[in-house]
Amino acid sequence: MRPSPYQDAEPARPLRVLLTTDWWEPVVNGVVASVQTLRRELLALGCDVRVLTLSQGIRTRSEQGVYRIGSVSASMVYDRARIGMPASRRVLREILRWRPDVVHSQCEFSTHVWARRIARTLAVPLVHTYHTIYEDYTHYYSPSRSVGRKVVETFSRRVLAGTDAVVVPTAKVQRILTGYGVRSPVHIVPTGLDLERFRPAASEAEHEDVRALRRGLGISPEQRVIVSVSRLAKEKNLEEVLDMVAAADRADTVLVLVGDGPYRPELEAHARALGIADRVRFAGVADPAEVQRWYRIGELFVSASLSETQGLTFIEALACGLPLLCRRDPSLASVVVEGRTGWQYEDAEQFSAHLSTLLDGPRRREEMATAAREHAQATCGAQDFGRHVLEVYRQSLRRRPARIISRPVVTA
């Protein structure tokens, strides 16, 4: 049996975990949702969890276990992005006095620098979750995709070289990192979901809410609704979604795009050029606490994005009973079970055929809606997510040399 990494220790205490992330509320994206879910589940497992993130201004502050470092806008590089300022010594001293047992970084930029420094100072494991396939974002920083990919490869390899373990949501991302030459242990842990919140409408009040949202968008009871929940950015490939809807040429369908972003004017113009502006609704940003309401107005979820590491919105849609109709991509193999929870399409002909199957066969759609919910419940629960990440911490701690501290309890 491997000896405990905590020798001659003081009495047991909860495992202390510091989560670091450049993205946090009020921003709405997949990273924020994933980190918030992980924090909640680790707390439920008995861990002592704090978060180090960026403030929305230059002032550094702390609140309820969250340290916010002063930052300045970097929106010229990426919408709503921020760069951390030289960090507060008070915050750093407070974190070092608290002495986390594991530092879990969620972003590769400002807060990752802090994560490395804290982990190195305390000689504790540094775990990192790789959320973003940066080579799909080369249009933001390089005119050449091949040059951009080389930059991403070198950058990712260097960032991850100092980690004890890397967490990725899918085998697709694991293969990419292996191709980059990353040597740290890579663990596949799909992001979990709060299945008590993401579910179909159940009560009469929830059904009335669905009807009210549809009325607010000018959608009649007879019209069929296709939903997309996404940031309106170029890498999300929403122009293709508009192309597919136009090619399907179904006057009875309305596409609802939930979200906002810098590419909205181009998408609005593209819808007009395709002659489908009257069948597209731009709903704007949804409150993160209420996004499940928007899934419930639809009959299926659509996406053409190829930039997803896992696609949390796909899982949310499944949990709300929406079959998926998505552009073929290896990252979706675990969520799109062909003909059961949805389909992956490769061209307009396939898109139209699958759309007709779902909309023209109510019994088939109901069967797929049930299968979608069951699949989400079986594979994407938040509790499993928390337990699997905790096991990554356990393994990283076992690989570390013995050190004399008060012994943390790593609960199951």
From TrEMBL:
An example molecular function term from Gene Ontology annotations: hexosyltransferase activity
Keyword Manganese in annotation: no
Residue intervals of the Glycosyl transferase family domain: 212-374
Presence of keyword S-adenosyl-L-methionine: no
InterPro entries tied to this protein: Glyco_trans_1, Glyco_trans_4-like_N, Glycosyltransferase_grp1
Domain Glycosyltransferase subfamily 4-like N-terminal: 28-197
GO biological process annotation, one example: carbohydrate derivative biosynthetic process
Superkingdom of origin organism: Bacteria
Keywords (A to Z) from UniProt: Glycosyltransferase, Transferase
Gene3D superfamilies: Glycogen Phosphorylase B
Residues of the signal peptide: none
Family matches, as Pfam families: Glyco_transf_4, Glycos_transf_1
Official protein name in the record: D-inositol 3-phosphate glycosyltransferase
Protein source organism: Brachybacterium paraconglomeratum
Lineage: Bacteria, Bacillati, Actinomycetota, Actinomycetes, Micrococcales
